[in-house]
Specification:
Blueprint: E1 4-9, H1 14-17, H2 31-46, E2 53-56, H3 60-72, E3 80-82, H4 99-106, H5 108-116, H6 128-148, E4 153-157, H7 159-169, H8 174-178, E5 187-192, E6 198-203
Parallel strand pairs: 1-4, 2-3, 2-4
Antiparallel strand pairs: 1-5, 5-6
Helix pairs in contact: 2-3, 4-5, 6-7
């Protein structure tokens, strides 16, 4: 029995393009983001993957990415569960701020700590550790049992909510996961053993 879990970060959003801290705000995909999502669908179609169930966040850019992927693989209308547990990390008071402007205002070192430390949140926001504390319980309760039951599952979410999952799946340290880059619209295909451990991982990023 195959146990397939595919994780995919949303395609480029309008705020990615503008280099803004996005968090829980709801910008749409850019034209490039739409193209990235369609390409992800093509890649999964080439692998002949079909899904039994989809999960996504409560944010438009992830939902739209998932819709475009499912359309490319001929699975429009697949049952999809949406939950804010899979939302991007909340950037709090710096949400909507240009990253270069944030560096000018708070200093390069401070912004780097907020972006790339594991457990230091920006003011009013979440650290990656705090993001993991909402993502992982949801994964264990709602997603993993479906995979272990033999269903092929796709999760369309965000850079940091997916990092939280990847950290656990690949047994990475906080230092290792902070260096892990996730391309927009690039699927990562996991095959899991019956205990939920990873047998193989295939990153479809260029």
């Amino acid at each position: 029995m195959e146990r397939i879990l595919v994780l995919v970060r949303h395609g480029q959003s309008e705020w990615n393009l503008k280099n803004l801290f996005t968090g829980w705000k709801n910008p749409n995909l850019t034209e490039q983001g739409v193209a990235e999502a369609k390409k992800a669908g093509e890649q999964l179609r080439d692998l002949k993957l079909k899904f039994d169930l989809a999960f996504t966040s409560d944010l438009t850019r992830a939902q739209k990415t998932l819709e475009l992927i499912l359309s490319e693989i001929g699975q429009d209308g697949l049952e999809t569960v949406k939950n804010q547990a899979l939302n991007e990390r909340d950037y709090g008071d710096i949400t909507g701020m240009n990253k270069d402007e944030a560096r000018e205002k708070f200093g390069e070192e401070q912004v780097h700590i907020w972006r790339r430390s594991f457990d230091v949140p920006p003011p009013g926001g979440e650290s990656l550790k705090m993001t993991a504390e909402r993502v992982l319980p949801y994964y264990h309760k709602e997603i993993l049992p479906q995979v272990l039951g033999g269903k092929s599952i796709i999760v369309a979410a965000h850079g940091n909510s997916l990092r939280a999952l990847i950290m656990e799946l690949e047994n990475l340290t906080p230092e290792q996961i902070l260096k892990r880059e996730l391309g927009t619209g690039a699927p990562v295909v996991y095959r899991l053993a019956e205990d939920g451990s990873v047998i193989s991982v295939q990153d479809l990023a260029d």
